[in-house]
Amino acid sequence: MKGYIYTVMVAIVGLFALCVDARVHEVSSENKLYSKLRRQRFAIVFFYEENKELRCDGDYRRDLKAARNMFHRLSSQWEYTEGDLYFIRANVSKLDLTMTAQQFGVDQFPAFLIFEDGRPFKHKKDNTVGKIDGFVSQNELRTFIDTTIGDQLSDRREYKREVREQRRAEQAYYWSVAPYYYGGYYGDCCYRPGGYFGFGFSI
Question: What is the pLDDT of residue 203?
Fold first, then answer.
């Protein structure tokens, strides 16, 4: 019995971990990266290196793990999920991602790069790319995101709020003008729009 309970608990924890991790999307090739970027208005990509040699470096391994965890935590923050900011993780040690990152202006790793409509975000004032390098803290990355595209994410959240309010108002109006009584053949008496009262009689 104890073994069964333990198995169930492990499964639940594993499922929860998958749900949390699903907020960060891993890519392993240039095609997969472009495919995800094309479908998103705004995205932030975490470019990093992880290969057999670097795994032997204890300090680097520790810093990379901390950066991953920090990236995951930010991906679940309400202001970013509600603002539809897409979080992507890309190991440049795989296939052709090193060349891709360099084409985006990333010349050192790790680096965090913001994309808009599939292209690197550029500041209007100086035309520089929205990028921050190194093992930054969570507060540093949050500040970078907020100062770069904070206004756009806020606009997106406001738009979604207005859409929800409009839908609620439409539903409230619908039920205020169409709460006609319906009595079916099987006694399922409840409100239905249209004013049909069973046995072929309409009201």
Answer: 45
* Cis upstream peptide for 110 (omega within 30°): yes
Whether residue 154 contacts residue 83, with contact meaning beta carbons closer than 8 Å, is answered with: yes
Is the separation of the CB atoms in 180 and 192 below 8 Å?
yes
Nearest Cα to Cα of residue 98 among 31, 48, 56: 48
Structure tokens at 10: 């492990």
pTM for this model (two decimals)? 0.73
Dist. CA 97–CA 51, nearest whole Å: 13
Phi-psi region of 61 (alpha: psi -120 to 50; beta: other; left: phi over 0): alpha
The confidence score (pLDDT) of residue 6 equals 46
Contact 42, 84 (CB under 8 A): yes
For the chain, residues with pLDDT lower than 70 are 1-22, 95, 178-203
Distance CA 17, CA 40 (A): 24
CA distance 64 to 56: 12
**Helix, strand or coil, per DSSP, at residue 32:** helix
Long-range contacts of residues 51-60, Cβ cutoff 8 Å, at least 24 apart: 51/93, 54/93
